[in-house]
Write a structure and sequence with these properties.
Blueprint (H helix, E strand, L loop, with lengths): L2 H12 L24 H13 L1 H4 L20 H4 L15 H7 L5 H4 L14 H13 L16 H14 L8 E5 L1 H5 L4 H17 L18 E5 H4 L3 H8 L6 E3 L3 H9 L5 E3 H8 L4 H6 L5 H7 L4 H6 L4 E5 L9 E8 L2 E8 L26 E7 L5 E7 L4 E2 L21 H6 L11 H6 L6 H10 L3 H21 L7 E2 L2 E2 H10 L4 H7 L4 H9 L6 H9 L4 H15 L2 E3 L20 E5 L3 E2 L7 E5 L3 E8 L5 E5 L8 E2 L5 E3 L14 E10 L19 E2 L2 H18 L3 H6 L6 E10 L1
Parallel strand pairs: 1-4, 15-23
Antiparallel strand pairs: 1-2, 3-13, 5-6, 6-7, 7-8, 8-9, 9-10, 11-12, 14-16, 16-20, 17-18, 17-19, 17-21, 18-22, 21-23
Helix pairs in contact: 2-7, 8-13, 10-14, 10-22, 14-22, 23-24
Length: about 750
């Protein structure tokens, strides 16, 4: 395959987020993004615009309908500077956005696919990386706005508000009343537009998990509109469905207050409220998505439940089809098919791992199976819920349900693992309902006499004209958007181009910093700082890491119910035994590298100690970079030249018995950078010569890094096959962490 063809095939996979209906990728609607006036910020803006906006800025997307990785505001520098999951002010090498560039992860097309650079495919050069670094450095110790004007909502305030609301509810409705909370996000300075998206996303998911014919409307009970009321009866849920969530809820703590017994007595559950962001992340994907919807375990069973006889509809020409070669869903042809169901519509697709022989719709347009019928490899289904919202099922060729689609055929770039995940991926694509699809099979079959008459007649009956199919899709779309409106939701509402449920789930999945950790614990930042100094020793590494950088969500989630009683007055609510546990999906990353120091500020002459923990075996390079950009490699060194470290080992540098120590020399700020690689290769352009000195020096650290990037990009572009370039990624996989400390 020539490079051009392979890139085309790769593109059709890369734009895959839609699971059922194909679409023609187009440039997103223009959005006003003005460059900043500050020259340092303007230089960074120009770099991000040239290298990243084509995938990550709504209004600037190229051949892409949705932002990649659920990140669509890269040119909103004021916004991303407040998001410590992306930018750590004053610490470029600790900032995820910067690390993605210096670690050869982004821009993906140039650095991973080996696409030659041109006017549209541009990777940052030496100067541009320095400009981006300078902007992040210039942010200094800035943090998100303190939002002093907003009243802080404590955990006791939440319970008091719920107790007051329950007092007003009809007695017959108390046992089934429940709540979803977003108060911690408001306390963490989330602005009003984002809060609006998050609250609507929570209620959209509630309706997407309901089997009732009535919608659940958006209702809040507090002045800040951060506590949402729902009712299990309105969703046709049993108390056991709520218990299923409680059994795996990692934040089951609450203040020791007399109101808690009021809540428990009124509702009959030990905990009548859950965090809405956790709910969005957890209940929008298997296994909980399937369990809460009581989803059948196979495509045939789903058809029976929805009153759909697929084979009969095809035989009687009641099914309506559209087939096409390029769908934006996969690199291969696909077929979509509509059936009427008890609740409205039932769309399914036939997906293929290739285009040869009976995988080719244009040679085998009937079936599935039979002399003129295709043989497919799997499918996806969108079907109406009784309330007008949509539900989803993935299945293999045998009709057995799948939690995730095979990435060999399709993948979802908004997910960290790139897998098409049932529920959440479909919601992200079909935020407006069904999508138009232009059939190509009808014209191809009826244009000549290649096929027998009975085949042509069957195609004419099954594959309607485009205008007919357009009307059908439009009507089904109206049904969905009408349900959203009846629930008090805005169908087109998004967060930086991201569908509302996906946006709320992504907010949960992001790394945790100290301000967010404080808010999730129900503490002000000042209270959190004070509590951290008195915390149990075992929590000190986590708290220090929160202070200096960020902590992956899965790690914070795991330790939360132990940490909360230690730094607050909250107590654990016993809920684990009330229902059978269903292992929930876990947020997290493939690799984590934790770097902390024993202090955040030192005096001249102090001897610091640095701690490193890697989630994988790797080869570690630890470098100190001063204010002038000069680096000193702390490890490996002449005394310890073997830099292989074991996974999960808490290593100290220098170790207690090390024949050397580090000493803080000059006043200012020092950036300590830890870089790990799976193979023992040179990183960041560093070349050791221990015969000449004990510690390797790097006169201009960033220049050394950028030169290394330039060489790698040139080598990747020179390869004949982009796939080969991508395949070498494992040989040079890099992961890093960085902290900034002050010397007074």
């Amino acid at each position: 395959m020539h490079i051009s063809n392979q890139l085309i095939a790769r593109f059709h996979l890369a734009v895959m987020v839609c699971l059922i209906l194909g679409f023609t990728p187009s440039v997103a609607r223009s959005q006003d993004v003005k460059p900043p006036a500050d020259p340092v910020a303007k230089a960074a803006f120009d770099t991000l615009e040239k290298s990243c906006s084509r995938c990550h800025q709504v209004g600037r997307l190229v051949e892409r309908e949705r932002p990649a990785k659920a990140f669509g505001n890269i040119l909103r520098l004021d916004e991303i500077a407040k998001n410590r999951a992306l930018i750590i002010p004053g610490n470029p090498y600790g900032s995820f956005l910067f690390k993605q560039i210096v670690d050869r992860e982004m821009p993906y097309d140039v650095m991973q696919d080996g696409v030659p650079e041109d006017a549209e495919h541009h990777a940052p050069n030496d100067t541009e990386i320095k400009q981006l670094e300078a902007w992040i450095q210039s942010l200094g110790t800035q943090t998100a706005a303190a939002c002093q004007a907003d009243k802080f909502v404590s955990n006791k305030d939440i319970i008091a508000a719920i107790a007051a609301d329950l007092e007003k509810r009809p007695r017959a409705r108390l046992k089934s009343t429940r709540y979803l909370t977003l108060s911690h996000l408001k306390n963490a300075c989330t602005d009003d537009p984002a809060m609006k998206v998050y609250s609507q996303g929570a209620i959209k998911l509630v309706n997407s998990l309901s089997r009732s014919s009535d919608v659940v409307t958006l209702e809040t009970i507090d002045p800040a509109r951060t506590i949402l009321r729902i009712n299990l009866d309105d969703m046709r849920w049993e108390a056991s469905d709520w218990d299923t969530l409680l059994a795996v809820y990692p934040y089951n703590v609450q203040p020791d207050t007399q109101f808690t017994s009021v809540l428990q007595s009124a509702t009959g559950t030990p905990l009548p409220y859950l965090r809405a962001d956790w709910f969005a992340f957890t209940a929008s994907r298997p296994p909980l998505y399937n369990k809460l919807l009581k989803m059948p375990q196979s495509f045939p069973a789903l058809g029976r439940e929805e009153g759909v006889d697929v084979a009969s509809d095809i035989r009687k020409f009641l099914a309506r089809r559209a087939g096409f070669q390029k769908s934006g869903v996969s690199a291969n042809n696909r077929l979509i098919e509509r059936h009427a169901s008890r609740s409205g519509y039932f769309w399914t697709s036939y997906d293929f791992a290739g285009n040869r022989q009976k995988q080719n719709l244009f040679e085998f347009p009937l079936g599935p199976g039979g002399d003129h019928g295709f043989d497919h490899d799997g499918g996806e289904t969108i079907f109406s819920l009784p309330n007008g919202f949509q539900a989803y099922l993935l299945n293999n060729a045998k009709g057995e349900s799948l939690d995730k689609g095979p990435t060999t055929i399709v993948f979802d770039q908004s997910r960290k693992d790139l897998a098409v995940t049932n529920g959440i991926s479909c919601m992200g694509c079909h935020d407006q309902g069904m999508r138009k699809a232009k059939d190509e099979v009808r014209a191809a079959v009826l244009s000549g006499r290649t096929f027998p008459k009975e085949v042509r007649e069957a195609v004419e009956g099954l594959y309607p004209k485009s205008e007919v199919m357009d009307r059908v899709i439009e009507e089904d779309g109206k049904r969905f958007t009408s349900a959203l409106i009846r629930a008090g939701l805005e169908p087109s509402l998004k967060f930086n181009g991201i569908e509302m449920i996906n946006a709320l789930a992504k907010r949960y999945e992001d790394d945790v910093d100290a301000p967010l950790a404080a808010a999730e614990l129900g503490l002000s930042r000042e209270e959190f700082a004070k509590s951290s100094t008195d915390a149990d020793r075992k929590f000190k590494p986590l708290l220090r890491r929160l202070e200096q950088a960020v902590v992956p969500r899965d790690q914070f989630e795991t330790v939360f119910r132990e940490l909360a009683p230690d730094v607050t007055d909250m107590v654990v609510v016993k809920v684990a035994a009330i229902a059978e546990k269903v292992a929930p999906p876990k947020p997290g990353r493939a690799v984590d590298l934790a770097l902390t120091s024993d202090k955040s500020a030192y005096r001249q002459g102090d001897t610091p100690t640095f701690s490193v923990v890697s989630s994988r075996d790797c080869f570690l390079t630890l470098t100190d970079v001063d204010d002038k950009g000069e680096g000193t490699v702390l490890f490996p060194n002449k005394f310890q030249q073997d830099n292989r470290i074991k996974a999960h080992a808490d290593l100290k540098f220098p170790a207690v018995d090390a024949p050397f120590q580090y000493r803080m020399k000059d006043k200012g700020f020092e950036t300590v950078i830890a870089v790990c690689t799976e193979h023992n290769i040179s990183v960041d352009g560093i070349v050791h010569n221990f015969a000449g000195s004990n510690f390797t020096t790097v006169p201009n650290y960033t220049r050394s890094v950028t030169r290394s990037i330039a060489v790698e990009a040139k080598n990747a572009a020179a390869k004949a096959a982009p796939v080969k370039a991508a395949a070498t990624k494992a040989d040079r996989e890099i992961f890093r962490a960085a902290i900034k400390v002050e010397v007074k």
